Predict the 3D structure of the following.
Amino acid sequence: MVIIKNIQILPLNNMNKRKKINIAIVGLGNIGSYFYKYIVKNKKNLINKTKFDINKIYISARNINKKRSFKINKSIFLKNYLDVAKKKDINVIIELIGGSEGAAKKLVFSALRNKKHVITANKALIAKYGDQLSIIAEKNNVNLEFEAAVCAGVPIIRTLKEGLISNKNNKIYGIFNGTSNYILSTMDQKSLNFKEALYNAQTLGYAEAKPLSDLNGDDVASKLKILSSLSFNTYINNKISIEGIKNVDKDDIYNANLLGYKIKLLGVAEYEKNKIIQRVHPALIKKGSYVSNIDGVLNAVIIESNQLGQTVLQGEGAGPGATTSALVSDLCSVLRGNIKYPFVLPSKKRSRGNFKDISEKKFSAYFRLDVKDKHGVLSNITNILSKNGVSVKRLIQKPMKTKKNSSIVIITHNSDNRSLIKSINILQKKKYLINKPKFIRIEDI
Amino acid sequence: MVIIKNIQILPLNNMNKRKKINIAIVGLGNIGSYFYKYIVKNKKNLINKTKFDINKIYISARNINKKRSFKINKSIFLKNYLDVAKKKDINVIIELIGGSEGAAKKLVFSALRNKKHVITANKALIAKYGDQLSIIAEKNNVNLEFEAAVCAGVPIIRTLKEGLISNKNNKIYGIFNGTSNYILSTMDQKSLNFKEALYNAQTLGYAEAKPLSDLNGDDVASKLKILSSLSFNTYINNKISIEGIKNVDKDDIYNANLLGYKIKLLGVAEYEKNKIIQRVHPALIKKGSYVSNIDGVLNAVIIESNQLGQTVLQGEGAGPGATTSALVSDLCSVLRGNIKYPFVLPSKKRSRGNFKDISEKKFSAYFRLDVKDKHGVLSNITNILSKNGVSVKRLIQKPMKTKKNSSIVIITHNSDNRSLIKSINILQKKKYLINKPKFIRIEDI
């Protein structure tokens, strides 16, 4: 190292001297198996792009004897996943167990404490323990990489942390869940009801057997918390409003179409009057707009910043191929020696942020009230809305298939979220309602 | 460094020990000035995200006394830009002179030879000398970064080199020039002719006083060569077909609209039968498709790969803010010690690639022939097309404003590029033509 008047020339890690490292893959499900096979097949090609050679690939999974499409040499199999974190000749651990607690949590905490680089596809873990894990990684000067945890094939984490590092972001939003987007698109395009579309998605492998977190918004919420934290340089914050797509039915999609909208499940984190709001909910979006055209299992992320206006990233958000693309990108970053703070800034420089809940935010909204077609019902409804500060922009009443019932569709003017919810709660108790009232926000994007 | 049975633990560059480095900005035009002010203002914030402290910012420009919106302390001003490359206490040089020859070329070659990290926004230089520069950078183990050279605010270089590093790409294409896209969009939306739209763009600062390379396709060609090389792991290749937008007029835009198309200037690099074709030309694109909706100064890049299907990046492609975003992203990468091969692979591992020219490729195309309305003209035209292997899918003949003349618009079936060009060349010589015949390819994207 040349020292000139207290200035040091950057240390040049000579790329020509190849160092050897060992990696361990923990968890051999759908993703893990695909990733393992990819690495074995493409090792040489990857090595060309980095400064380190991959020497040995260890594997740990629940059962070595499970039927697999490939053979596992016993010499690379580690029976106890927790040994992986302590094994001295392992440098990088790829955690593909999943879940925010239990084995995944134990492994990742232990690995970072033992100064191993960690790569994970586990959004629930990062959304819950990312801040704590980050502190350990920084202290021990190892990488904690989680590109695969958010929108898989869309390189949004790397883009926020590196490509757009100079940005002051005002808003980040988009479609972050391929399963629910596929279901909503199919309900729309093939006129299916929710159950049929879900079954369709499961048959094609776009939805798991137990797709709860995809449908109730939790999956999007985990991703949004991570994105929001990276976009605004804050710690991960749990103040977030979460609604899934389970209440959206065929009639809502039909009505939305008539009114010129598509229904999409959105994740949004944005500054409003110097405070950050995080929210996950289905929304009516004008047909023809960019987000309305994102169909099927695609994901899209839109970042709004002072410096760049709008930046958009779109791509495949799930599946073994897309997830492997993200994992390999993380692995190559580690193998290049690109040590960086997991959340861009050192933990102590990140801020708490000033978060507020959704209640004060104003929305125009779609209400659907299926009612008994009796005298006075309509006036009672409009009366309730008016009393609660919700004014009607558009109202359509149409007879339902079952005679003597009507479906009333209302588009409201901009009203604060609290008033909208309050109105729905009051309406919900009315005896003239024959179904649960529907309430979907309208998003002008 | 701990050595275990020939396995070395990754060297951990301790992020907590802050090293100081000096940078130099060479060229203080529109971009240089904005970037300098940005760095001065945001130095502290940037430093938090990297392992190095920026100690001193040197500047070199043609004239220190030129009127500027900020003051330059003489102690940081270097009169001779070539001194910058040799000055011992400078670690990173940001080249913002521009042009593939002359000062920029001398500076960058000299800087890399003197083991300085180089960041440049110079697409012409990289497209012409990128391969040579890359060899020097690798030999001296310094970075050569050029995110700002391609689509400015869209982090496509970093995404290809890092985020999508695992991909085998089949095609990369999109809208890479904001100026020409702005002109085409304005001609369409405001029914302006080319000159009016250009004047408009110049007034708003979206086109330079001499916008030649924006309009003749050269700017897109430079970007495409770089993207193609990064996408397919080949050396930069000059086999490329280039057409600009200067021949597109108001009538073509009007006709395109009638037929359900928009006209966009595309850059496309793609594998076709194991060979790579590079091409830049205006194209008719179906209305409602993603690319047809990219309006104004926006840029969009679409990558098609075996692993991920389609990945899209969209954002601001020009201007000081967007370019600074890219430069800062490069600077932070250098300041993080993220040394990498400028073109992903080591130079000797890149391939020559197998490139072929556009002539064998098949296109459906739009012809416009403004002709004297005489007997036999139409049959002569269709005869020429037929003889040259071009078959007509759709033909519209309409009278022109000047009586006795007609405009014949033809959409052809898929025909190879050679036949299309040959037909146009024959038609061009016919005395019944009153204007130069028009030929625009149709792109099914």
User: Anything to note?
Assistant: Residues 30-48 of chain A form the longest helix (19 residues).
